[in-house]
Amino acid sequence: MTTKNKIFALLFLVLNLNSFAQTEDFKFKRKIENTSETWHKIILPEASFGKLKADFSDIRIFGNDGKIEAPYILKSSENHISEVAIPFQMINVSSRNSEYFYTFELSENKQINQIKLNFNQENFDWKVELEASNNQSEWFSVLKNYRILSIKNSQTDYKFTQVDFPDSKYKFYRIKIKASEQPKLTEAKIWEQKKNDGDFKISVLKSQKNEIDSKKKLSIFYLELQHKVPVSSLNIELTNTFDYYRPITIEVLRDSIETENGWRFNYETIANETLSSLNKTGFSLGNTLVKKLKITVENGSNQPLEIKNIVVKNSIYYLLARFTEKADYSLFYGNLKASNTNYDIENFQEKIPKNPKELQIGNEEKNPDFKNITQSPLFENKIWLWALMGIIIVVIGYFSLKMLRE
């Protein structure tokens, strides 16, 4: 090795001293059993989410005490919904005895299951029927007694004008609206919506507390989950049989502060929605890490709704990991200083087997190598910085003089 190469090798070694102590920054570990194949699937335990960073960037797979790192891709079992717009033209608008008809002709004979409507009116409550035909002579019923609604005032701004129906394949579709006035249809969109249902777990509730604030006319529900988990959806089941639409706010607990007057809880709003008898699909919460939830329903002048059940669902997160060397591997996490990974396998996901063998992981252990260092990092400490610069100057000076003598 030449003198020049020795200098660069020494500098590289000095500047990368911390890269060899990979495991000591992680607080927790779980043993991984039987890595018999190149690709494996590892399901993250629910008990570990409360100790992970919010973006899951502190997950690592190390083998042989940190000498080997196995790359992985983080996946979740969430729903995948795709919408394909179907081209069409409106060919007829007519009316008869307070019934208004809108006929659409599809440019291609494709399967559809959703029509989105927009009207110029802001306040209405109409019943809709949907019929279909291939020749406009013989019509078949697709949907009956479907309700669309729009309410806008000082207290409520709610609209439900999306018509959902079973998969249907015809050339012509006709919407009939029963109304006391001419519906001013400003826009219609026809879609084929495909939904691939993911795998979810119903989150286990540790406790639930319900309150009625008669003065503010609110119903408030406090939920605490067994574990902090990435919540994907929330569904409120009611016993009421009448129609309703109430503003609803969903919040998550971020932190709490103890004051002289007791504990003060700080909640963050993650959803402002409308709880409606027309739309019972629930509320999407975007896989937010949650331990405690607060749900507030604004009753206004109405009687409080009777809650039968609140169902919280969380996504299943898993790793697709590649093991190219034989070693004793463990899953590490709990590193607040960790940054996102950048593995090559992200760019070659099509080469990953569709159903890799699932691995079992052991119980959570405290990492014996963990060093909870609270002091400033090496290069923020001026003493260490000047010492390192001095070493570098001396080394460079020594080898420079040696080269000049030669």
TrEMBL record:
InterPro entries attached to this UniProt entry: DUF3999, Galactose-bd-like_sf
Extent of the signal sequence: 1-21
Gene3D superfamilies: Galactose-binding domain-like
UniProt superkingdom: Bacteria
Annotated TM spans: 383-401
Keywords for the protein's UniProt record, in alphabetical order: Membrane, Signal, Transmembrane, Transmembrane helix
Protein name, entry field: DUF3999 family protein
Organism: Flavobacterium qiangtangense
